[in-house]
């Protein structure tokens, strides 16, 4: 197991080229500074205030983990920050949609983990013009279960996966790669609050449980080119956050009107149902993970 911090600065054309080359070679790049630590702390506080204000709606809060940018202005704002968008633009170009924005929160001393998997396995998209930006709103460390990548694994096709529906697996189907993964090659994605990592949809990645005394709070933003389209499940929604959409493959939605605005919550419910149909397509069981709003 190794730790790696390959890029510390985004200033200047030379470093821009290094970012793209590193991403193309390794299937990931980190750490990139998207915002200050203080800004990250404020965003985390805003999210936790929503949790504190709605303790009697656990199903609603659970659903926020999958499409939180549709109903939380703070999350929508993060998806549009120049510090997040600019490095993604270098890889995908100026036109960007957000296909989903997933909160990955591991509670202190929680047994929850993420098994080795490739993101694009179950997303029902037709191409590879996708980048996930993982935004650290708290420290991401080895102790609290930071992500781990296998360098260069994006260069192969999607490998076989199996569904486990394991209770503590944070993935929808508890899916895991069905071939052996050499964990001695794993790179720990250590991030400070306000830093991000970018990874390819075929990169092998996973994370351990949180053994620390604090929550690990991260936001995974799934950016796609508007040229992408859904080839399984229903037509889904997306948010245009950069450039223009000249294809019309997704139903574009506006930024949220406010925190949990009723019209936005109704849109969230439909979006969750649409994406669950995609995530669980072909699954033998739906398990306990299908998010339904109260």
Textual characterization of the structure:
The protein is an alpha+beta fold. It has a single domain (2-279), classed as Jelly Rolls. The chain contains six helices and 14 strands. The protein has helices spanning 13-26, 37-53, 58-67, 73-79, 82-92, 262-279, and strands at 2-3, 28-33, 96-106, 114-117, 130-136, 147-150, 161-162, 176-177, 186-188, 195-200, 205-207, 216-224, 237-242, 251-252. α3 crosses α6. The radius of gyration is 18 Å and the shape is globular. Residues 1-15 and 286-294 have low confidence and may be disordered.
Short description:
The chain is of the alpha+beta class and 294 residues long. The protein is built from 6 helices and 14 strands. The chain has one domain: Jelly Rolls (Sandwich).
How is the topology of this model organized?
Layout: E1 2-3, H1 13-26, E2 28-33, H2 37-53, H3 58-67, H4 73-79, H5 82-92, E3 96-106, E4 114-117, E5 130-136, E6 147-150, E7 161-162, E8 176-177, E9 186-188, E10 195-200, E11 205-207, E12 216-224, E13 237-242, E14 251-252, H6 262-279
Parallel strand pairs: 1-9, 13-14
Antiparallel strand pairs: 2-10, 3-12, 3-13, 4-11, 5-10, 5-12, 6-9, 6-11, 7-8
Helix pairs in contact: 3-6
